[in-house]
From TrEMBL:
Name of the gene: nfi
The keyword DNA repair is assigned to this record: yes
Enzyme Commission number(s) of this protein: 3.1.21.7
Record site: Interaction with target DNA: 85
PANTHER family recorded: ENDONUCLEASE V
Cofactor list: Mg(2+)
Name this polypeptide is given: Endonuclease V
Organism, as annotated: Streptomyces thermoviolaceus subsp. thermoviolaceus
Keywords assigned by UniProt, alphabetized: Cytoplasm, DNA damage, DNA repair, Endonuclease, Hydrolase, Magnesium, Metal-binding, Nuclease
Reaction(s) catalysed (UniProt annotation): Endonucleolytic cleavage at apurinic or apyrimidinic sites to products with a 5'-phosphate
Protein task: DNA repair enzyme involved in the repair of deaminated bases. Selectively cleaves double-stranded DNA at the second phosphodiester bond 3' to a deoxyinosine leaving behind the intact lesion on the nicked DNA.
DNA sequence: GCGACAG
DNA sequence: ATCTTGTCGC
C-alpha cells in the first residue's frame, strides 16, 4: 500500500530559506562513525519519481538483506511536489516523500542509500546528509553524475576509485563498479566513513553499474507514480 | 555578467 | 527527473 506524503509545516518556500536551513543543520552531521559493516544487517534504497504536470511525487523505500541482496520490505508514498528543482537544493524537493516512505516501513531501514550527494555539495549538506540529520540514520549518497565536482578517471577495473575534491578536502569518490563502465560518485551522508561507504557500494553492485538498492527503489517509485496517476481517472 | 549544475 | 524506438553487442 501507498501512504500519503504531506509537506511538513514550516518547510522552506524560497531558495533563501532553504539555504538558511542547510546552514543551520549541517553542524549536526556526524562524521566520526564508521557505520554498519558491509554485508550485514539491512540496507535500504530510496528514490523519487515526478509528474510535474500533475504536481505529483512518488517515493519508494526498499529494504534489502545486505548479505543476500534479497528484498525484505518495501513501501511507497505519494504527495504534492514540495519544492522546485534547484541545483544544490534537491533535498527540499525529495525529502518529504522519502521520509514518508521510510516511516511506512515495517522495520528499521539500517543504512540508507540515496540518489545524489551527501557531503559533496556546495554547502557540504546534500540530500544524503540532510536525510541522515532528519532521521538519525546512517546514510550515503550515490550519484550518477559528478555535479559541480571534477576528478580524474579511475582505472578501468571494478573497485578502483579517485578522489572527488573540493579544494584539498576529499568530499567523495568516483568509484568504478563495473569494468570499463562509467563510475558512480559516492559521498558520505551521515554516520558513515567514506571508505565504508565505498565498500557498501561495491557490495551492492554485483552485476550492474548502480547499487541494487537504487535499482529497486527506482523501479518501485516509478510504478507507484504510474499507479497514482492511473488512480481516480475514468477508465478508457 | 555568463554558464554549469545531484534529481 | 522526463520526453522516447530501435539498435548494437555480450
Amino acid at each position: 500500500m501507498t501512504t500519503i506524503a504531506g509537506v511538513p509545516a514550516g518547510w522552506p518556500t524560497t531558495e533563501e530559506e532553504a539555504r538558511a536551513v542547510q546552514d543551520a543543520l549541517r553542524a549536526r552531521v556526524v562524521l566520526d562513525e564508521t557505520g554498519p559493516k558491509p554485508g550485514t544487517g539491512h540496507v535500504t534504497g530510496v528514490d523519487v519519481a515526478y509528474d510535474d504536470e500533475r504536481d505529483l511525487v512518488a517515493a519508494a523505500a526498499v529494504v534489502l538483506d545486505a548479505a543476500t541482496l534479497r528484498v525484505v520490505a518495501e513501501s511507497t508514498a505519494v504527495g504534492r511536489i514540495a519544492f522546485p528543482y534547484v541545483p544544490g537544493l534537491l533535498a527540499f524537493r525529495e525529502l518529504p516523500a522519502v521520509c514518508a516512505a521510510l516511516d511506512a516501513l515495517d522495520r528499521p531501514p539500517g543504512l540508507v542509500v540515496c540518489d545524489g550527494y551527501g557531503l559533496a555539495h556546495p554547502r557540504r549538506f546534500g540530500l544524503a546528509s540532510h536525510l541522515g540529520v532528519l532521521t538519525g540514520l546512517p546514510t550515503i549518497g550515490v550519484a550518477k553524475n559528478p555535479f559541480t565536482f571534477s576528478c580524474t578517471d579511475p582505472a578501468p577495473t571494478r573497485g578502483s576509485s579517485t578522489p572527488l575534491r573540493a579544494g584539498t578536502d576529499e568530499v567523495g569518490r568516483a568509484l568504478r563498479t563495473r569494468d570499463g563502465v562509467k563510475p558512480v560518485f559516492v559521498s558520505v551522508g551521515h554516520r558513515v566513513s567514506l571508505d565504508n561507504a565505498c565498500a557498501h557500494v561495491l557490495a551492492l553492485t554485483p552485476s550492474y553499474r548502480l547499487p541494487e538498492t537504487t535499482r529497486r527503489a527506482d523501479a518501485l517509485c516509478r510504478r507507484a507514480l504510474r499507479e497514482a496517476t492511473a488512480a481516480g481517472r475514468p477508465a478508457d
